[in-house]
Amino acid sequence: MANAWDARFAGAQYHYGTEPAAFVARSLWRIAPGARVLSVAEGEGRNAVCLAGQGARVTAVDGSAVALAKARDLATARGVTIATELADLAQWRWPQAEYDAVLAVFIQFAPPALRAAIFAGMAQALRPGGLLLVHGFATRQPGYGTGGPGQLDQLYTLDLLHAAFPRWVVLHQADYDADLDEGEGHRGRAALIDFVARKP
């Protein structure tokens, strides 16, 4: 998988742009300066760098060395520091209750079994009371053709996320359509899911 992502992220351009996802920009107020944040499958750094710019201590984990190198370059260009870790999420040893927030934006490369393992790892990495922030494509997204996988079982519904994080306190949830302008990777009308919850 890493080779495919390395190829996608090769070149000087940032495939999904250098600005944060709109969901991340809208959620900045939820994350206090100094908070420890884990960004899962961060890619080229746009969201991690934004959070670091707000004073968060961000660790970006991704399976592509090419992407993480660009993330570090972007951080340097913006005058911030992020930690990066190269990892295959199918085999990564998730930290235990180490982070104040865990962010997952468009991590829909995983089939259901791997997704369940990743979600369990994200829950494990959060301290009690920590924030989970998930943003991705809804199941009607293939009809738009503006990004994301074509496999329906890799897309989100709010019910799926509620089931994955039972008894968590849901602070925000939304299933909506919006126009994306995120580099060449995400451009045009898209079907989106937002989910913000607090770990018990």
Automatic annotation (TrEMBL):
Molecular function per GO: methyltransferase activity
Record-linked SUPFAM superfamilies: S-adenosyl-L-methionine-dependent methyltransferases
Annotated source species: Phaeovulum veldkampii DSM 11550
Record keywords, A-Z: Methyltransferase, Transferase
Domain Methyltransferase, residue spans: 37-130
Protein's name in the database: SAM-dependent methyltransferase
UniProt record, GO biological process: methylation
InterPro entries associated with the record: Methyltransf_25, SAM-dependent_MTases_sf
Coiled coil (residue ranges): none
NAD keyword on record: no
Any Pfam family hit: Methyltransf_25
Keyword Nucleus in annotation: no
